[in-house]
Amino acid sequence: MAQIVVRNLDERVVAALKARAALQGKSLEQTVREILAAAARPGAEERLALADEIRAMTPAGAGASDSTRLVREDRER
After folding, report:
1. What count of Cα atoms within 13 Å lies in the side-chain half-sphere of residue 59?
2. Cα torsion at 70, 75, 76, 77 (round to 10°)?
3. How many angstroms separate the CA atoms of 41 and 69, rounded?
4. In the chain, what is the greatest distance between 2 CA atoms, to the nearest angstrom?
5. In the predicted model, what is the mean pLDDT of the chain?
6. Distance, CA of 50 to CA of 39 (rounded, Å)
7. CA quadruple 38, 40, 45, 47: dihedral sign
8. How many Å apart are CA 20 and CA 17, to the nearest integer?
């Protein structure tokens, strides 16, 4: 696991994080870890942009294959 150090945090921020951790019955470290993990996840806008990029890679007019037919053909071999 990687580690980071954040310097010069406002004491009020640290106090608020400690209070939040205490209310959740967690350590300050665990609370901060969860906050950072949530912040690192892509948001809806980023996910939509990625979907558009993937969609753009599909040739125009290329339809999806009929997987039912393909499975049947494979089973008949």
Report:
1. 4
2. 100
3. 37
4. 70
5. 91
6. 18
7. negative
8. 5
Inter-residue contact 21 to 28 (CB < 8 Å): yes
pLDDT at position 61, please?
Answer: 72
Between vectors from CA 8 to CA 6 and to CA 11, what angle results, nearest 5°?
105
Q: Give just the sign of the alpha carbon dihedral 2, 28, 40, 4.
A: negative
- CA 41 – CA 32 distance, rounded (Å): 15
Token pair, residue 50, equals: 């990625």
The pLDDT score that the predictor gives to residue 27 is 97
Give Cβ neighbours of residue 34 (< 8 Å, ≥ 6 apart).
26
CA distances from 75 to 12, 23, 33, 64 (A): 65, 57, 48, 20
- Which parts of the chain have pLDDT scores under 50? none
**Given this model, what pLDDT does residue 1 score?**
87
Q: Are 31 and 24 in contact (CB under 8 A)?
A: yes
